[in-house]
Design a protein that fits this description.
mainly alpha
Length: 241
């Protein structure tokens, strides 16, 4: 169970790894699995890092990145999601598959909006430089001309996201995190006594933390929602009646 929790923290390791490699001087995020000196040692000689980080560092040092049209962050993210979406644990696999699809859909919508603002319809190159990994969703985003990428039947929330102007960043981000939160609830509907419920809780805590940093009032609302779910989500006495 503790090992599964590590997979939720690799995103922080990814952030720290890129910042160390690129010497950005950004603050080290201590929510990752590796301490700063440990990660610096992994950069020199990868031994304890997951396979995707070892592969990324090997390509980075040789200057042979497999997806040269992508940013260095997305180079790492591609390898990261490939490993997470094939994980043996169903929750890890399903959560990161959803997270990948959401990330790619948002990237596609953002590219289209930027192209519309510039009155430029030739935005396929921009989208192809923003969408990562290869699955049925990413393929549709790359080739579909439909406003919803022909994905609304699968993801009903796409049309709502597409209609929200991004100049209202707070509302836009609220809607995205609401989608994440509801998906976590769907993935843990019948996992009362399983590690999946704990993993979903940890992801929700990350959402709360992010909002407390961005907008205190929204962070307070998310925290109250989380506490309400904890208090009313499951009654162990009722379960054993």
């Amino acid at each position: 169970d503790a090992n599964l929790l590590k997979f939720l923290r690799f995103s922080f390791d990814n952030y720290n790894l890129i910042n160390l490699l690129e010497k950005t001087a950004k603050e080290f995020d201590d929510r990752g699995n590796f301490l700063k000196d440990e990660l610096e040692q992994e950069i020199k000689l990868p031994e304890s890092a997951p396979r995707y980080i070892q592969l990324f560092l090997e390509n980075y040092k040789e200057g042979k990145m497999p997806f040269p049209e992508l940013s260095i962050d997305d180079q790492l993210n591609w390898l990261f999601y490939e490993e997470m979406t094939t994980h043996s644990n169903e929750f890890i696999r399903n959560w990161f598959s959803f997270d990948l699809d959401l990330r790619n859909i948002l990237a596609g919508l953002n590219c289209r909006q930027m192209a519309d603002e510039k009155n430029n319809n030739s935005n396929n190159i921009t989208i192809s430089n923003s969408v990562i990994c290869q699955n049925d969703v990413s393929e549709l985003i790359l080739r579909s001309n439909a406003p919803d990428f022909s994905l609304s039947n699968r993801f009903p929330w796409i049309e709502k996201l597409g209609s929200i102007k991004q100049d209202n960043l707070i509302e836009y981000e609220k809607n995205i995190d609401t989608i994440r939160w509801e998906t976590l609830n769907e993935l843990t509907t019948f996992t009362y006594f399983k590690i999946e419920t704990v993993l979903a809780f940890c992801i929700k805590v990350e959402i709360v933390e992010r909002w407390q940093a961005m907008d205190m009032e929204t962070g307070k609302q998310k925290l109250e929602l989380l506490l309400t779910e904890l208090n009313s989500g499951f009654n162990i006495l009722e379960y054993f009646k």
